[in-house]
Amino acid sequence: MTNDSEVWFFLDFGSLAFGLGFIFIIGQIYLCFFKLERILRSLSNSFGVVILHPFLRSGFFRAGFMMNQIASYLLYPNRSIRSGALDELDYLNFPRGLLYLIRGLSMTAVGSMVSMLVHYFYKNGWLG
Predict the structure, then answer these.
(1) Per-residue pLDDT at 2
(2) Is the Cβ–Cβ distance between 73 and 46 less than 8 Å?
(3) Comparing 52 with 95, which gets the higher pLDDT?
């Protein structure tokens, strides 16, 4: 039999994972439909973005893949600049508000994943 604290634990972490995942998906849809052209214009000299450009015409899921790849370039700019995927001037001139939005959405995805893992490990008896 489960007690009240276990029920509240599952409700808290389950709703946290669902809520953060929902925010991430809505944010990805917003970026793909409304901000993608601005992102592509801002990163027009970056080799990694030029390579990903054919994915844009292939539908929403491929555009989402492209957005996740661009987000990884912007989350780890030093590694991306060293590898040649991101141009340093493009990164320095990238709009800060859009950069913070992309980084924030990436952090919500990580938070959702951590919440789901804690929920899974607790359910299987590996935590507490």
Answers:
(1) 67
(2) yes
(3) 95
